[in-house]
Design brief:
Blueprint (H helix, E strand, L loop, with lengths): L2 E3 L5 E3 L2 E3 L5 H14 L3 E3 L7 H13 L8 E6 L6 H15 L4 E6 L6 H13 L3 E7 L3 H11 L5 E5 L7 H10 L2 E5 L13 H10 L3 H11 L3 E2 L6 H8 L8 H8 L14 H8 L3
Parallel strand pairs: 3-4, 4-5, 5-6, 6-7, 7-8, 8-9, 9-10
Antiparallel strand pairs: 1-2
Family: Belongs to the aldo/keto reductase family.
Organism: Campylobacter concisus
InterPro entries: AKR (IPR020471), Aldo/ket_reductase_CS (IPR018170), NAD(P)_OxRdtase_dom_sf (IPR036812), NADP_OxRdtase_dom (IPR023210)
Length: 282
């Protein structure tokens, strides 16, 4: 496994397993399978409603001989619990569901509501040793700069939509300037634009004997971006994990770079209608 050293000194696997849209009843089996394959970074969130399944899988893995310190567990704080006191309570609730003594990474899930109160709570929990690293998710350049310049605590990670059709290079340069690790969600664009049959990606895959999915993950990792692909099938988990035995050539990287449209395939976090919709999600 390849690791990134975060700006707080902690090490984070560059490849992990995400459980977005994995049903709660299925989460335990999926995470157990992922850990058996070799994944050690597991990404969940309060709003995914599957923290208990993740926690049960972690408990099983530890009982089976996996050391807790080998695992890197992430969860996220939802908008409705932003604010100093609410964040502390939400963190305790998540930890109870996960069954953990400490958390490896806690993220503010969306850049709305009282993010500064939440950030104070998270900074306090980090000082107390209950969280090893703290970060954010879906913070665009203006929001991340504002937080960095006014909070006194630089996030370790920013998790964002990133895939061949929306590459976020300008935003990555902002993050690099603060030493913030970039983590990708929707690395496969959730299958949009027929991504797995894209001629450029398929052609590169044929060159290396790899799938389009493996090429995408390798491309992100070579950009220094953390990836957390999701699959409920262990065969696909194994395939997604098998990306450390080849390196994309510069011309391959350039060909993929040319696929960038500069536009989200999901939603813009500055769109008033989406801001309202996300704030009303409970």
């Amino acid at each position: 496994m390849q690791y990134l050293t975060l700006n707080d000194g902690n090490k984070m696997p560059i490849l992990g397993y995400g459980v977005y849209q994995v049903e709660s009843a299925e989460a335990q089996r999926c995470v157990e399978d992922a850990i058996s394959v070799g994944y050690r970074l597991i990404d969940t969130a309060q709003s995914y409603r599957n923290e208990e399944g993740v926690g049960a899988a972690v408990k099983t893995a530890i009982a089976g001989g996996v050391k807790r310190e080998e695992l890197f567990i992430t969860t996220k704080l939802w908008i409705s619990d932003a604010g100093e006191e609410r964040a502390l309570k939400a963190f305790d609730a998540s930890m109870k569901k996960l069954g953990l003594d400490y958390l490896d990474l806690y993220l503010i899930h969306q850049p709305y509501s009282d993010i500064y109160g939440a950030w104070r709570a998270m900074s306090r929990l980090k000082k107390e040793g209950r969280i090893r690293s703290i970060g954010v998710s879906n913070f665009y350049a203006d929001r991340i700069v504002d937080l960095c310049e006014n909070s006194g605590v630089i996030p370790a990670v920013n998790q964002l939509e990133c895939h061949p059709f929306f590459q976020r290079e300008a935003l990555k340069r902002v993050l690099d300037g603060y030493g913030i690790a970039f983590e990708s969600w929707a690395s496969f664009a959730e299958g949009k634009n027929d991504i797995f049959k894209n001629a450029v990606l398929s052609g590169i895959g044929e060159k290396y004997g790899k799938s389009s999915a493996q090429v995408i993950l390798r491309w992100l990792i070579q950009r220094g971006i953390v990836v957390i692909p999701k699959s409920v099938k262990i065969e696909r988990m194994k395939q997604n994990f098998d990306i450390f035995d080849f390196t994309l050539a510069p011309d391959d990287m350039a060909a993929i770079a040319a696929l960038d449209t500069g536009k989200t395939l999901f939603f813009d976090h500055r769109d008033p209608q989406w801001v309202k919709r996300l704030n009303n999600y409970k």
